[in-house]
Amino acid sequence: MTLSEPTATTTAAGPGQPEPSAELDELYRGFAAEGLVPLWTEIGDLMPTEPRSGAVPHLWRWAHLLPLAERAGDLVPVGRGGERRAIALANPGLAGRPFVSPTLWAAIQYLNPREDAPVHRHTQNAFRFVVEGEGVWTVVNGDPVAMRRGDFLPQAGWNWHGHHNQSATAMAWIDGLDIPFQHYADATFFETGPEHVETQEAPARSGSEQLWGHPGLRPLTHLAPSPASPLLAYRWEHTDRALSDQLALEAAGTRCTVEPGHAAVRYCNPTTGGDVLPTLRAEFHRLAPGVRTATTRSTGAQVFQVFDGTGEVHAGEHTWTVGRGDLFVVPSWVPWDVASEHGLDLFVFGDAPIFEKLHLARSDAAS
Amino acid sequence: MTLSEPTATTTAAGPGQPEPSAELDELYRGFAAEGLVPLWTEIGDLMPTEPRSGAVPHLWRWAHLLPLAERAGDLVPVGRGGERRAIALANPGLAGRPFVSPTLWAAIQYLNPREDAPVHRHTQNAFRFVVEGEGVWTVVNGDPVAMRRGDFLPQAGWNWHGHHNQSATAMAWIDGLDIPFQHYADATFFETGPEHVETQEAPARSGSEQLWGHPGLRPLTHLAPSPASPLLAYRWEHTDRALSDQLALEAAGTRCTVEPGHAAVRYCNPTTGGDVLPTLRAEFHRLAPGVRTATTRSTGAQVFQVFDGTGEVHAGEHTWTVGRGDLFVVPSWVPWDVASEHGLDLFVFGDAPIFEKLHLARSDAAS
Amino acid sequence: MTLSEPTATTTAAGPGQPEPSAELDELYRGFAAEGLVPLWTEIGDLMPTEPRSGAVPHLWRWAHLLPLAERAGDLVPVGRGGERRAIALANPGLAGRPFVSPTLWAAIQYLNPREDAPVHRHTQNAFRFVVEGEGVWTVVNGDPVAMRRGDFLPQAGWNWHGHHNQSATAMAWIDGLDIPFQHYADATFFETGPEHVETQEAPARSGSEQLWGHPGLRPLTHLAPSPASPLLAYRWEHTDRALSDQLALEAAGTRCTVEPGHAAVRYCNPTTGGDVLPTLRAEFHRLAPGVRTATTRSTGAQVFQVFDGTGEVHAGEHTWTVGRGDLFVVPSWVPWDVASEHGLDLFVFGDAPIFEKLHLARSDAAS
Amino acid sequence: MTLSEPTATTTAAGPGQPEPSAELDELYRGFAAEGLVPLWTEIGDLMPTEPRSGAVPHLWRWAHLLPLAERAGDLVPVGRGGERRAIALANPGLAGRPFVSPTLWAAIQYLNPREDAPVHRHTQNAFRFVVEGEGVWTVVNGDPVAMRRGDFLPQAGWNWHGHHNQSATAMAWIDGLDIPFQHYADATFFETGPEHVETQEAPARSGSEQLWGHPGLRPLTHLAPSPASPLLAYRWEHTDRALSDQLALEAAGTRCTVEPGHAAVRYCNPTTGGDVLPTLRAEFHRLAPGVRTATTRSTGAQVFQVFDGTGEVHAGEHTWTVGRGDLFVVPSWVPWDVASEHGLDLFVFGDAPIFEKLHLARSDAAS
Questions:
Q1: What are the angstrom distances between the C-alpha of C52 and each of B97, B187, C47, D320?
Q2: Angle between the N-to-C axes of helices C22-34 and B62-75, in degrees from 0 to 180, rounded to the nearest 10
Q3: Phi/psi at A22 (5° precision)
Q4: Distance from B287 to chain A by nearest Cα, in Å?
Q5: Separation CA D116–CA D336 (nearest Å)
Q6: Which residues of chain B fall short of a pLDDT of 50?
Q7: Is C123 on the interface with B (CB under 8 A)?
Q8: What ipTM goes with this model?
Q9: CB-CB under 8 Å, D46 with A185
């Protein structure tokens, strides 16, 4: 056991700190010997007046990510052991760990024509979001689900799943998971299944959409609430239409937008109306041309991907001009806003359910 | 105060009953004088071993209802005071009251071309279901909602609403409400609004559908659960497709039907996944040709309307051959089943939420 | 089938009513023949602008009730068939039915020395409240629970229970149940058990109190929420102390009373914090000398029993001076208040959970 | 940004790993330059087949802790800045951080006669548990709450609180908090209040106990559920009696113990019946002489303190003989059991609510 001995004794005592002395040094050695650390030397770091995340706001350019993923497609096999050809965004503030924020994982995944990502299941909650391309089916408990531009595909923990590229072209997409959180909390279980997906079928609609994809209708055989959404694909045509409808309603005088010209939907679990996954929230925002959002901040981290259009993002001290495919992270309690001259479609996910369920959610407008 | 004096004293005592005597007569007179009634003379009626509804199974033929509604269209105005040209199903067991069951109201409503049903609001929860016709818009808090064959239109308590026939033909539909229940419970509030609906607009989709009609998507401005569905129209195209999808999935080997060949959906509140209205449940069932449902019974009453096809209904001692538009009621704890040689589409509503929320729901298979 | 034919046609039409005519008479005969009743002739009764209960405010004097119960103790056996020597308060507005309100049953029950009330169970939720006396044990699923002055003893539906008078003196107490509601809703199941209670033990504390009677502590073997309280006795010593504590806290400057000098507790289900029974609410109120409550009204009925002290009650048009043991009912939406010159302890129960769970609860201050 | 470049390329590829090559090295350099880390080199650590906590089972002896706390009482002031004279258990597996597990903080706190710990509030949820001594009042939002042996005192996030030693002798106790979790999640807010507690009153019962300390009774002014318990002291007399009652009931034939001779209670929030704090669970277990618990494991960490008696603990590979005051931690998914020859009273807290609310809870019997 190698506990770091506080070294505050070598300098003058700060407020509320003991005077340096030989006796204090001896006491601190006693603490270390017994596996103890005092609060009074640690409190400034441990209990700040407001969240000071180790993570920092950061931007990853799609134009840089995609070629690296394509190159990985040449050099790196996908199969049992490595499991997925996924390359994670590593927040520069988090010491080289593949964590976009303390709790969140975001990665670009890449599958060559006719390739399979092997079947496995894990307690981590996951989703896929497609900024471009098509041709891959994710097969969840035997149900093949097509993935196409604009689709959001949640994948709740502990369901068997693999991916299969049915097409003649490679495809890349984004994975979001709670890997860092479950790793931190020691909650992780993982199990491997077959090396290849069990079906090569490519139906137009998945079974989950046939059962759950009808607004306000619930199969009589599935009446109990489930912790995660049973709907495995939220199709772009619905998301796009919902956003257009909000802006049309706003134009007709209905108050239904977050702020003028700013439409937004949350992906929800139809069995409860709550978040789509137990630990992850996902939303889609549309800014009409000329809109700038209010500056806000909230506990919890958020990861954004530009789906279409361009915008200017402010996050803490950073200002970025962003376009299609670009990804950026806003850590807990960092103020942010987005402005768009010509219109912007923005996908976002975060860890808000963790904060809300544990009564740790806070947000405010920030100047 | 005129309390009925028990007359059991004039005959021999039953089990657990006191012996007839002059003293007992005097005691009973004392009870009556003080506004008291003993349990022991009433218990057989009050506390039966299982529900014995005063309501009886009964069938109303659409072919008889519709002409009467049309005739009412000739003779009865619709306007402030009478409020609606609605004609209620009166269960023969309920003493001529306009109650299809102790808790439920079911009526045919009729609106002539260009007519308005005046605006009002009430605590009673309501819905409309359309078995045929179109042309009427129900206007809810200013939002015009078209009504067409197969549509289910919930109308939660205390929302302003009126109806307007925009077309050149009369239209009839079915109303379901909890009027008897709220009347019984002394829960009723009612308020009148304008004599005419405030808008004559006839949009293809209502505002409520624009906000809430996208599967699994929720407007960011409406995140709190609401006690009733904010979606004001459940369109036939969605219901029909959901049922077809279930039968297709069943044919492909997925277990997703109530029983083989019997598809069913429940209309739900997208903000909670629960019932569409606080006191009313509504579902749509489809029987493939040749299917006979299991015989079941449950606490609470159910009212059915045949939407399409034909079938043979057994309800208690009754057997009816039913077709399009026919309505029938199955009171609490009466066993029932339906069989269809050529296929049947069946709408049903009931008071199950009352029983479930108060922990009084029971059901079983009955021979 | 004998449906009453509307007779409005014989007089001039009211607002929104059709003109009397022979054709209208024929239409109404057609309605009656088909089991139909129009809304427009019924709406005034069915959908009033606010609740107009058939039940009326009424007072029953303990000094009149108790002698009748004692006399019943002489003349009426208690045993299988009659089940209980219970005499119900019959609201003068409810046609001689043993219903204190449309939903509620309130009765005085009487047990002679060494008598047993036979074991049965029923879906009706029940409680006992003891205004004076002791000596009876209610035995619930084999757990003997002593009944003493001031105790509140809930008895959730479908638990086996009987009563046994262990003492040499007769005892009377009050039963409250939802018999009228369950009878109305056709929800009633009833089953008989042994003629005599299975145990004659008389422990100081019941098993339920040993498991559940410790504030904020829950047995690790019972972690699931239950629809009704598992605590079978709420002892007077706790209720009394909770009320005294509130008044002491108020005197020390804490805002914790309903209004100055008016302390109150609600009996709760420790597994949820909610109402003690699925359909019934029960509370205990204490007015310090000189206090008059605000005048309020709410949907739902309330039945009060004076536990100690004296007061002046106003309920609608009625004014009563009440004392120990007196019972009175306030129907839905009737304004009421109580004033006490010398202090008053007041037990009350009602059907509020029905209204709250079905989103029908309303209340306001009324002048 | 210094991302660690994977070094797997220098050795032969493992299963599912790419072959080492110059091109692969270049790809990995490209990843590092863009702030990316591949999954396939990290998956073994990040996604193990079951939880492998960095934390280890560990024991701290009260006989070693207390003298160090007393010595800190001599050398370390308590006041603004350091805030508390608290000395935290530092898990040997967690790199010298003052974390007893990844999510949990456990510390011994020490207050000299007449000392004050200054008033502050923070989002961290906290509790105190007293294994010996008395004389300190914790003052929560102005309500002074005495602390005595056996008492459990929850302190939900964001309430003002300070401590005051009213007595002539020093006092030590245990603090449990979710400091590591909130630090990890970037959820922490902290605010300072007065340097000294606002009241020196020492009432026998706190206001919170006067309002909330009556089993099953709820003040009518506090009917909404609260995320944490409003009851600020769970007194030893209640805990002790609840455990004795369970063992007495078990002896009389009632199944109410975790296993034979093993009684246990959970500290609960009376407004919901759920856990006492949003992120922390706390329980008290009593083993009768001769009892050995089943060996179990679960996700989440647990920290135990022996309250009385002696026992033998097995936790993973460790075996410890423990006595009064000793503290030990069992990390996530480590199997453990306890045996006691002469009887054992054991306090325990953990992070189970985090796992349950996020649907990550698992447990099983382990051999």
A1: 18, 9, 10, 72
A2: 160
A3: -65, -40
A4: 14
A5: 39
A6: 1-10, 367
A7: yes
A8: 0.95
A9: no
